[in-house]
Automatic annotation (TrEMBL):
Keywords: Cytoplasm, Methyltransferase, S-adenosyl-L-methionine, Transferase. GO terms for molecular function: protein-lysine N-methyltransferase activity. SUPFAM superfamilies: S-adenosyl-L-methionine-dependent methyltransferases (SSF53335). GO terms for biological process: methylation. This is S-adenosyl-L-methionine-dependent methyltransferase. PANTHER family: EEF1A LYSINE METHYLTRANSFERASE 2 (PTHR12843:SF5), PROTEIN-LYSINE N-METHYLTRANSFERASE METTL10 (PTHR12843). It comes from Crucibulum laeve.
Length: 232
């Protein structure tokens, strides 16, 4: 499957995510519920373990999460000893950003930056202790847990292409040379992610993968989610 094969869904609309995070923000204000952990706690923990191995906190990496939602992944990195001042989460939903900021006040994560931004169309802001190239902030590490999936379910553009086809180039643009990108997806296999991201146009190459539990069906085996890392 590639991005062109996916049909548009409400999961690819800003309206849907505004509604989701509006409800989660209201729940947090009422009962302190921080909201859903997309793909579950096990996937979250494995992503954090990968970051600890390949971008250890001792190296003070600048880390951008694309589509940070309620901020759970960045809070996990904070708990693992990463410098809050080098962590930024962006999301195009205002209430997602508001929720993450509110959760941060209870998690000791006030130093983490959360910013409303449409990744496909806007460059995220530069944090104080970051490098920049050609006028844009460049990062040691980009993280994605389900955002590429949602973008791939968006309405086709005037050209008939999925908006997700613009995503790999945006990733490459925001990475330092030697920087890495870790993506977890439930819509695309490891091979499909490699085909989309490791191309001559992006300059990204395959780096590593996270092993998730597998299942067998009809003589084939696979994982419910795929986590693949690329390096610039």
């Amino acid at each position: 499957m590639n991005t062109a094969d996916l049909q548009p869904s409400k999961l690819g609309t800003k309206e849907h995510w505004d509604n989701v995070y509006g409800e989660e923000l209201a729940n947090f204000e009422e009962i302190g519920d921080e909201g859903e952990i997309w793909f579950g706690i096990e996937v979250l923990e494995k992503m954090i373990e990968w970051v600890e191995e390949y971008a250890p906190a001792s190296s003070a990496p600048s880390i951008l999460e694309v589509g940070s939602g309620n901020g759970t992944l960045l809070f996990g990195l904070l708990d693992a000893g990463y410098d809050a001042s080098l962590l930024l989460g962006i999301d195009y939903s205002t209430d997602a950003v508001n929720l993450a900021k509110r959760v941060a006040t209870t998690r000791g994560g006030d130093g983490i930056s959360f910013y409303e931004s449409d990744f496909l169309n806007n460059d995220p802001p530069k944090l104080e202790r970051m490098d920049s190239q050609e006028g844009i902030a460049v990062w040691d590490l980009l993280l994605d847990k389900g955002t590429y999936d949602a973008i791939a379910l968006g309405e086709k553009e005037e050209t008939g292409k999925s908006p997700a086809e613009r995503y790999p180039a945006r990733v490459a643009r925001l990475l330092k040379q030697g920087g890495r990108f870790l993506i977890t997806s439930c819509n695309f296999t490891e091979d499909e992610l490699k085909a989309s991201f490791a191309t001559p146009e992006t300059g990204l190459i395959y780096h590593s993968r996270i092993q998730h539990p597998t299942f067998s069906f009809g003589g084939h085996s696979g994982s419910v989610v795929s986590s693949v890392a690329f390096e610039k």
